[in-house]
Amino acid sequence: MSDHETAPAEVDDEEEIPTDHPRYQDLVTRHRIEEGVRKGITHLQGMHAEGRGSAFDYLIGEETIPSADEAERAAAAQLLLADHPVLSVNGNVAALVPGEMVELADAVGADLEVNLFNRTPERMNAIADHLREHGAEDVKGLDADAHVPGLDHERAKVDADGIHDADVVLVPLEDGDRAEALAEMGKTEIVIDLNPLSRSAQTAAIPIVDNIVRAIPNVMRHARELKGATEDELRRIVAAFDREAALEAAERAIRQGDLD
Questions:
Q1: How confident is the model over 118-150, as pLDDT tens digits?
Q2: How many secondary structure helices (H) and strands (E) does the chain include?
Q3: 11-59 pLDDT per residue, tens
Q4: How far apart are CA 220 and CA 111, in angstroms?
Q5: Rounded (5°) CA angle 206-207-208
Q6: Do residues 142 and 111 make contact, with C-beta atoms less than 8 angstroms apart?
Q7: Could you give all domains of the chain from N- to C-terminal order, each with its CATH number?
Q8: How far apart are CA 106 and CA 108, in angstroms?
Q9: What pTM was estimated for this model as a whole?
Q10: What is the DSSP track for 97-151?
């Protein structure tokens, strides 16, 4: 068995995972999803979603490819240009990058809103509390006093002064039908999805084909670098981003993925 196929025995804390393990980041990610299930943050279906993403990430070398970094820079510029940006958070997002989402929201002046397909009051409150534990002061999504047209499941429930009112929405690890519905509402969508062929990535104005554990810190880094940029400079960055070329580059990288 190759080094890439080995894994340490089950651990209780991610600090027990050896940092020199060749699949270290993947193992940490899996552990966080498992911990999320235990805490009532992540749904069991989230483990399947993580597995799909992990396969795509493996094929792109578990690194941020150049086209993804360009998308992350454009995303930062778009968030800084927004009048009312909102970062959508589901169970996997809360389990994987809670502190990073809070920091990004602060960096670009965005709201955080919890939105779930498998929605229960217990999970909503658990995720909101988890974000607060990581520094969030205000978490939206609990009021659910507005509705996304065209959807008949729980992800249609949003806050009127949150996603419903937003002009730019970051929707990481998104369901394709809600991505399409938000686009129909006229929202500018930034999607993080390791599958460039998904409906979410195909719908997004700015599709980021990268692992969320790398993507959110990268967007935050670009946002901090662009904080002093003029509106014209930010608009030029967004206009120069070629979504079709980015998706094609990501698909090419995945199809040419080296498994050796």
A1: 899 999 999 999 999 999 999 999 999 999 998
A2: 11, 8
A3: 555 555 546 545 556 666 766 777 877 887 887 665 656 657 778 888 8
A4: 15
A5: 115
A6: no
A7: 66-255 (3.40.50.12640)
A8: 6
A9: 0.87
A10: SHHHHHHHHHHHT-EEEE--SS--HHHHHHHHHHHHHTT-S-EESSS--EE-TT-
